[in-house]
Amino acid sequence: MRQGLVPGIEVEFQILVEPSMRPAFDGKVVHDVMSTVTMIYYMEKAGREIIVPYLEDGEEGAGFAIDVKHVGLALVGQEVKFKAVCTEVSEKRVVCEVKAETDRHVVGIGLFTQAIFQKQDMERRIRELKESLLRRKNL
Question: Do 87 and 7 meet the contact criterion of CB atoms below 8 Å apart?
Fold first, then answer.
């Protein structure tokens, strides 16, 4: 990773909760609020925006662990602010505190850890897995 990524760096952005962001199972909408899946997506996005400026050529990051609590509601039509604050940086991991909140209350809080690795290593692992699955399928 490039120099400069240190604890305390933060990213913040807002989204508007849209009907497509509601929780739905088998095509049936459960509530007219932002789903947990949507909240986690934007928490991960905020954490990713922390690391992208510091990735070297040939380097990439991916979600490694996420531990969040969905503690409040965000209605369709409400704005939600997402924030990630870098709390820990090592050679292979970046940890961020993540938070989602409306102008009224906290919607979600947690930690998001990203693994940092060489793209070629991931490409090799994907290729090996595909080959293994093809061999297995042809047996």
Answer: yes
